[in-house]
User: Fold these one by one.
Assistant:
Number 1:
Amino acid sequence: MAYLDHAATTPMLPEAVEAMTAQFAVTGNASSLHAAGRRARRTVEESRETLADALGARPSEVVFTSGGTEADNLAVKGLYWSRRDAGPDRTRILASPVEHHAVLDAVDWLGEHEGATVEYLPVDRYGRVRPEALREAIERNPHDVALVTVMWANNEIGTIMPIRELANVTAEFGIPLHADAVQAFGQVPVDFGASGLAAMTVSGHKIGGPYGIGALLLGRAYSPVPVLHGGGQERHVRSGTLDVPAVAAFAAAGRIAAERREWFAREIGGLRDDLVDAVRTAVPDVILGGDPARGGRLPANAHFTFPGCEGDSLLLLLDAQGIECSTGSACTAGVAQPSHVLLATGTDPDLARGTLRFSLGHTSTQADVVAVAKAIGPAVERARTAGLT
Amino acid sequence: MTETSQRPRPLRVLAAMSGGVDSAVAAARAAEAGHDVTGVHLALSANPQSFRTGARGCCTIEDSRDARRAADVIGIPFYVWDLAERFREDVVDDFVAEYEAGRTPNPCLRCNEKIKFAALLDKALALGFDAVCTGHYAKVLVNEDGTRELHRASDMAKDQSYVLGVLDDRQLAHALFPLGDTLTTKDEIRAEAERRGLAVAKKPDSHDICFIADGDTQGFLAKRLGKAEGDIVDESGAVVGSHEGAYGFTIGQRKGLRIGTPAPDGKPRYVLDISPVNNTVTVGPVAALDVSALTAVKPRWCGTAPTGPGTYTAQLRAHGGETEVRAELLDGTLEVTFTEPVRGVAPGQAIVLYDGTRVVGSATIATTQRVTAPA
């Protein structure tokens, strides 16, 4: 079995499993005032400090959520509402067109229901937003921009965005910038404090932590309008009883992700390079998606377009041989649509149907690469016979 | 002769799973027979509806999920394939065009011909599968020389060979119908599903056209073809009513005519003829529906085409009865004479010819000859 879909979810680290199971046996609501509550609270706050440390943030800047999707929604909707409340003219949202659907659909929803004007920033053929393009978009009317949202690294094609440079531009105009860093955390240096970001999304299960936990890193100057109202936990920004076992496990995974980041980039990045070489050797006309420069893309991401193939066909053929990967595009009722990311980079829609994303992770080995090297050639040949239906 | 579903050699089988009970049990039986089965749900609507509306279709997200759960229980891989574009071109657009031309199409038959045993089968074969498996009630028998025969299901009440009558020898060679030799009631199929732990056991049957989820064919056509008011006339040509589009009628239809003036004989009137050219619908007494002969085009044969005239039994619509005919292929057109006149034959429908239980072939009805010609 070759599991090469770590960008979808990656196996939990033993340390995270241990931290989580240890907490299952402990009673205590972190909001309670008695001893059990204080004990739970202590675990949460220690975890918050650990995560803050791993991400270059202050503990008070870590707002726990139920995952990346909720953190994205809180950032985009909450910041939009609070900025508009403070200045009714601020209704323009600038977003990259290659965002995850958690951002894209939240932004579109604001456009449809909350009077927002959504403007998608131009990207180059690697899906990257240039600081000049952001500046140009803002300068058309700096006073009506509510927020800017650009992901740190793309989940499909792995392209890394120039977040620091983009934040320099938004800072000039006093506009908050949010970045979805779900894929970046653990793979590239992510320092919230140095980034200049107003808000940043991270998720537990993409870094070896559990499902159902994530965080919005939120600069102390920002008070987004809550999406969830209730008991006033998490700076009154995100109500809801804290999931202590998940928080503890997330922190354990986050600490390790930060500690092993250089090892990950070197070792897993090396395996990724081998995988790209192997696929190129087996299928000479394959097109590598995203930035070909090593420094411009996530070390664990390999994205390919196979001309004349249906990604679905390739997935089925590889799955039958125990190789698990993704077509890299979002699904509607399990039906693959041409990826909005590829379309944004100017890829022909027919070509965009023939994509596969291999994403490596902390359990990947040379054997996984060998399995792909062996299977990909015949699979592509067969998928080409089946053609595009 | 042996049945394909009992062939000993394990096949790589692609099971088309609609989310209904029949296709789920068929896939389960194929897997149990030792075949290497992969389930696939065909997404046939570009905009699948989240929830079931009205009668059950096979295009909702819920159907897709039901199919996936069935595959989980059977323990086979499962995928959703998007054939919406092909389905729209080959089935839905054809359906609308046929009605527009005053004919009455059978979209299920068209789907079997163009989608399940063409687009899907071709893709399956290219990907290394040997056969496509469906939950149809029909039998494929293998002759000594390797050729295939399509037969009615063991249980005549559930037989669906009519909608498979368009399949040729090559298509039959790669078709697997594990329910074809079932001599059990639908309740027993449901019981089998229950026994196998398939949650679709209690799901209601689908009867309607899958892409018209609310069952309102008239409304569906009106949305696509627009309203075109015209006259309803009797056999003498006298105007007896009006309609909002001649395409919305089927020969033999009685309900929904909304004719104000009663017929001279006081008896109900039926649609006798639809003329899309002058947008007129002709109505008349039931006796005027009797047909003595017909011609049919685009014949397809399960095996070699018969030469010379022959006597067959014919089926003229899904769930229709059998009737004896003489048929002959002349210059690519099938000329059919009925031993006894039949009622309510609509151009566009398929005529499927049988020799006993064996499907000989099918063709699309083009013209009919009435016992009493309309004035």
Note: Chain B touches chain A through 21 residues (CB under 8 Å).
Number 2:
Amino acid sequence: MAVTSKTAPAAVSRPSTTAEKPPNKYKQAFPQYAAVSPFFILFAIFGAFPVLFSIWISFHSWDGIGQMKWVGLEQYHYLLSDATFWKTIGNTLLIWVLSTVPMLLLALVIANALHNATRLRTFYRIAYFIPNVTSVVAITLVFGSIFSNNFGLLNAFLRSIGVGEVQWLTSPWGIKIAIATIVTWRWVGYNAIIYLAGLQAISADVYEAAKVDGASPRQTFWRITVPMMRPVILFTAVTSTIGGLQIFTESRVLFGDTSSIGGPGDAGLTIVSYLYQSAFIKNQFGYGAAVGWALFVLIVLFSIINWRLIGGNDDERLTRRAARRVERRIAAQNAKREAADVR
Amino acid sequence: MSVERIRTAVGHIVLMFGVLVSLFPFYWMVVMASNTTPDIFSYPPKLLIGSHLFENMGKVLDNIDFFGSMLLTLIASLGVTVLVLFFDSLAAFAFAKYEFPGRNVLFGVLLATFMIPAQLSLVPQFVTLAEFGWIGSLKALIIPGAANAFGIFWMRQYAKGAIPDELISAAKVDGAGFFRQYLTVGLPVLRPGLAFLGIFTFINVWNDYLWPLIVMTDPNRLTLQVALDQLNGIYGTDYSMVMAGALMSVIPLIGVFLIGARSFIADLAAGAMKF
């Protein structure tokens, strides 16, 4: 790390004996600043500025071309009383739960099986990961045909085993299940690979010790595997929450050829679909920007909830509290002893 | 021993079933792309690969400028990938291996940008690019994504462990400046990390849908994903043709993935463990 303090240019420009004026450390670090600058310049133009600009836009009524009209907080007022907006939050959260819960549970099961398998490991990993690199558009088209009401494979199967057909792509629940299935299919393997890395990071000694102590497999799983996997589970929970709240492509492509982008009854209209619809189909840029901010608030909110639920802080806090209690007791004892000594 | 063996067998059965579920949609894509639409709509449905694949692919080529879209997508994906690899590795090299005033603050800002969802700035980004006159051009697809926080973060973790300080000191003694140190010491060591970040970036840009949907407004210059969606929107009733298009759009990407799949998956998992 200390390598930087003696960079070449300074040594060349002045002899090492002239120590009267220390070289300017900012000037000296110019190459490093230049190296990290592309990201910050691009972020300033395409990240930070748009974020600030979107606050400004959300205070206006604007179709993207004509005059911007200042409306203050009206967009947000409207947002809070907009039944469609609340519906999109409900839709998004339902799809998120319907996809994330089975996705992470299945990933845990698969990771466990992968962890124990000694053969075909590479084959399994690649086979499980392929869905994740496949384009959402293409795969949504495939699932769209599988779930198709009249000609879909799934309904053909249900018919053949004597169960009635389900109107997957026209009923509110069917639509959500179809979208959640696509999301689950794409991300189970990805999460399983990450859980597998987490499982492999737990040292065998810990399990050995548990075995010696006579712990049952269930105890081992809940007392050792799950706590030690906490950071990894938190990572997958946070990423799938952020991803889940931003679902768009699946519902957009599934109902691409219908008049409403959220499908019949807007049952598949997600928050991002609504943002897209408001800004880029209805040309209500101000309202679209406001929906963007609502999405941001939701993501922050749910990330905090995840953190609180799964994050390891509780244990640390308890340990710290216990340590403080011990310290206080020792201090009290010392004080008592000192008092006794004085006497 | 036999209990162990049964457990192993059960594990493999579970895994194989998962593999079937994982790969079935691809098989079904081929089945639909190789049969005629009336065949697909019949009951009971055809479950085997048919003989109309090339006929359906030909129809795709007749209806949309498939290769034009593919070329456009390829240029955008390669362009972003090359720029990301250069800018991200250069920044990561500086962050990982050099002390400079404000380094930790700058890196903290970089990490904070993770929290901002891309959709938040969708509207103003569009407005900004329209102001630049970039809407509909390749610049809109390439420039905004030319450097990203994830890549810098990931490459920095990689560079920290992979590049020995002694090598940098030696290069300095030889009179090499910062950029030369990056080229001669940094890049060769970072090559495996670059392979991962390259595949990751390429796949993401190739598959992106929302951004190109918004900025590529010229119907003659669409990326593959948007063109495919449009094919479905216009000729949605011709299932077998749409599926042939989907198949054609998916194959090159799976090829890219399979080239580096083994180390790619390992690197991705290792990256997630560092968060």
Note: Chain A touches chain B through 106 residues (CB under 8 Å).
